[in-house]
Design brief:
single chain; about 400 residues; mainly alpha; globular; Sterile alpha motif domain-containing protein 3-like isoform X2
């Protein structure tokens, strides 16, 4: 590695001129091939851009990173990100490249001085390892919820109606819908005030059903046929999800072995189930934070399968249990139903996504179900990169 001293650098150009890339990359760029979807090609582009920028500085400013990323996208617009400003993933890739290249130079005077000037310390994060050591954070709530026409007495009447209907083998859907609609604003007020999920679910027992959670999501975000929308959108990207997960987890190997032993008519359902299970892997998250065979060690909504091993989970249809905040919320008839309802629980009970699940859940929210909330942050670089490869 060549070490440049501070006085050897020139001024960063006002207009950045893209360098000539290696012949194989330049040919692909000239023929408008999607190099950003091929990791080796992308790394070569970032490397050449880094080497060109490093002739001027090892500490580019944010505006200089943006200048280079914009120049790349302007010259080759087919390299744009699917979401956001179009160049965010290139911006972040360049920043990471410079950081990695500076690491071995930690004892160099220039790098040491810059670290002392701009260094920062990260505060340790508590691991999410058991229910007693972590509490769930809440989603953003910017509006004061007003309740008109109801009081504690009338709400009590409605909840008693719901509880009686819940005990019936065949509840009257009209009565249930009417009572859930009349208590909706009051219920949202209770959730916003921090009433525990189990208390809310027991008071309004139809929230302890997959259909009830999906209907509540419809009241919150006006999404009809949520399960149908999820299935249709997920089927469009399923082949690419499975392709991106290839070779990245022992679970994927178990799935492929089970697939080889299965009948052809069983493969579509098996592939769909595998896609749901393996989805977190492509976002660099752990499967067990979303779907698990073991008892969940977290207060966040988690789908627990009732199968004894992953092979039977892939090959056989069976019930799943969704647990949240330390209690069993409901039993779903099959995996897909459990996964969708567990996702809905974050909104219904006003839980913010924990960091170790955020990429997958944000992707489901914003890209599959097309749900946007006021104050949503831009998609992370990780999500945008995967989005570029899926669509």
């Amino acid at each position: 590695m060549t070490v440049f001293l501070q006085h050897e650098y020139g001024s960063f150009p006002a207009v950045f001129t893209l360098p000539t890339f290696p012949k194989d990359i330049q040919t692909k760029l000239d023929t408008k091939q999607p190099c950003h979807k091929v990791s080796t090609d992308r790394h070569k582009i970032v490397r050449i851009l880094h080497e060109t920028m490093a002739q001027y500085t090892m500490y580019p400013t944010n505006s200089e990173y943006i200048k280079v990323a914009k120049a790349l996208i302007f010259r080759y617009p087919f390299l744009k990100d699917m979401e956001g400003n179009g160049y965010n993933t290139w911006h972040m890739s360049l920043k990471r490249r410079f950081k990695a290249e500076r690491t071995p130079l930690v004892h160099h005077e220039v790098v040491r001085n810059m670290k002392q000037k701009f260094g920062h310390h990260r505060s340790p994060q508590a691991p999410e390892n058991n229910q007693g050591s972590i509490t769930t954070s809440v989603r953003r709530s910017s509006d004061i919820i007003s309740v008109f026409g109801e009081d504690e007495s009338s709400i009590g009447v409605h909840t008693q109606v719901l509880k009686r209907q819940y005990l019936k083998t065949q509840p009257d859907s009209c009565i249930v819908t009417n009572a859930m609609t009349k208590t909706f604003q009051w219920r949202r007020k209770e959730v916003a005030e921090g009433v525990r999920a189990d208390t809310i679910a027991n008071k309004y027992p139809f929230l302890k059903t997959p259909a009830g959670l999906c209907e509540e999501m419809n009241r919150i975000h006006n999404i009809e046929n949520l399960q149908h929308r999820f299935r249709e959108e997920f089927l469009l990207i399923l082949p690419k999800v499975l392709a991106l997960a290839r070779g990245k987890s022992p679970l994927e190997k178990i799935y492929l072995q089970a697939r080889e032993e299965s009948l052809s008519e069983d493969l579509p359902a098996m592939d769909f189930k595998a896609g749901l299970v393996l989805l977190p892997i492509i976002f660099k998250e752990k499967v067990e934070h979303h779907v698990t065979l073991e008892e969940p060690g977290t207060p966040y909504p988690t789908t627990q399968l009732t199968h004894t091993n992953w092979k039977s989970a892939f090959t056989r249809r069976g019930p799943s249990v969704v647990k949240t905040d330390g209690f069993e919320l409901f039993r779903a008839s099959y995996l897909e139903e459990g996964v969708i309802a567990a996702f809905c629980a974050y909104f219904v009970f006003n839980m913010a996504y924990p960091p170790n699940r955020k990429n997958t859940l944000t992707f489901v929210q914003r890209c599959i179900l097309k749900i946007s909330e006021e104050g949503d942050k831009p998609l992370s670089t990780t999500v945008i990169r995967i989005l570029n490869q899926l669509y």
